[in-house]
Amino acid sequence: MKWALLFIVAGLALVASVLVGPAGLQSDIVWNLRAPRAVLAFLVGGSLGAAGASLQALVRNPLADPFLLGLSGGAGLGAVLAIALHLPGPWALPIAAFIGALAALVLVYRLGRIGGDVLDPRILLLGGVAVGAFAAAITTAIVSLADAAELRNAFLWLWGGLSSASWDAVVLISVYIPIPLLVLLGASRPLDLLALGEEPARYLGADVEVVKRRVYIAASLLTAAAVAVSGVIGFVGLIVPHLARSTWGHRHRALIPAAFIGGGALLAIADTLARTVVAPRELPVGVVTALIGVPVFALLLRRWTVA
Amino acid sequence: MLRRLLFAVILIVGCRPSDRPTVRQSDRIVSLLPSFTEILFAIGAGDRVVGRTTWCDYPPAALDVPSVGDGMPPSIEAVAARKPDLVVLYNSGPNVTAAQQLERIGIRTVLLDMNRLEDLGPATRTLGRLTGHEQQGESLATAMDSLLHHPPPTSTALHTLAFIVWDNPPIIIGAGSYLSQLATLAGARNLFDDIAAPSAQVSLETIAARNPRWIAVLSDSATPPAFARRREWRAVPAVRDGRFLLLQGSLFGRPGPRSAEAVRQLKALLAR
Residue B246: helix, strand or coil by DSSP? Predict the structure, then answer.
């Protein structure tokens, strides 16, 4: 029943985001701009939702968010460097952002294993925050020292948006995300055990070290792809996992798919609102995800604490 | 109490040192906006300019003046090091703070609006008065005011265009910018003149649906911008067909004494 409801909401969100827009129903615009944008919003929102759900389990911290682990800082630095160095080609910016996110991933991973061969989730979290802040500082230094006025616009890109959606991007992302997504799904049983703590999980037969590594890398790869095509879209990866957990419980075999579909639906709806409510102008989509997500989250918090 | 406070605020705001009418001539001026630099040189006060921003690249003689940085926000120390007796700033939030700091160390400042073409006349008259070039200031101001009263050419096929400032997210120029006015004067219509702001983020599908005949971009290169090769932008017919107006940044990037020349160039581009 709840699955059927989730699929209906997701389906309606997708249909609405294809049909509704400031430009009416011109076939060229619907097919070449709105449809790929709706699908990309769904895939990006889904990736963030699934990545958030698994990272929260990995670091056993309800505040964990896909961007907390330094990837947004790395991606932003990559994007600003692409603009500052005038890297040619229409895909220079997303590729540079992706490489920046991967560099942050590697750096944070190295930091996480600083105490030996064991990946410590707490150090992972601290390392992520530190690497993110460091990259953001370098980014700001470049933007304020460089001459190019266009560098300031790099921040606009970084705040997130799906303006660059095209079928090229959709194809690329659809080929890319099933792999990390399947890795996360494959780790769903050990993730359930990890919630009990690392020692109990080990007694119950989970290969804790392998699982932590896999989950961290897979969730980060999902986030890196999302940030490369759409910048940093906040709140989806933080709030959707909690919403999903309140309905689907703590079993990751159900939680991860639910967070994926829920995240996709939320971002598709948010992007439709971003395009239409102040038309012909457009709101940054991160603003809309926060405006929808935060009140819902506050209501849920109240219900949990009252209950 | 509240009323008294309000009154005090009005008094303070109303008596901002920068608004004080002045008769003292300035001999060492730092100009913190390319438009002001161009005006100062055009009214024959170029020899009084002792500091400029990195953006002030016209007239060529301005390049001989030492730069005090990009002016966003102004570096107070770099400006003060030029020992100016007058600093001319664009009237914006960060610049108001900078002006207060300069006044505090005894340097006179003036904050001027420069958003639309009708700001040119008043700014030029003020700068003429402050430099003792009142006559030249007045005649240049009159010439620039007349640009506005020039009726746009009546054309049978009205050209439509959209100014694209940035591609991801798409940012366009609205009615609040002088660029929109330049388009009107050149006989074209900015399709986003229903947006009152100088610039705004819009969705790509709005640009595609409004279907401008031309895409105008500020660019010093002779080739279309990189976004022209992105697939999603090809949904805009003007991008697909390569109908770009590549506008030289130094001429179109600011309102100024050469705005009439900008209108002429835009007209010529549209007539191709």
Answer: strand
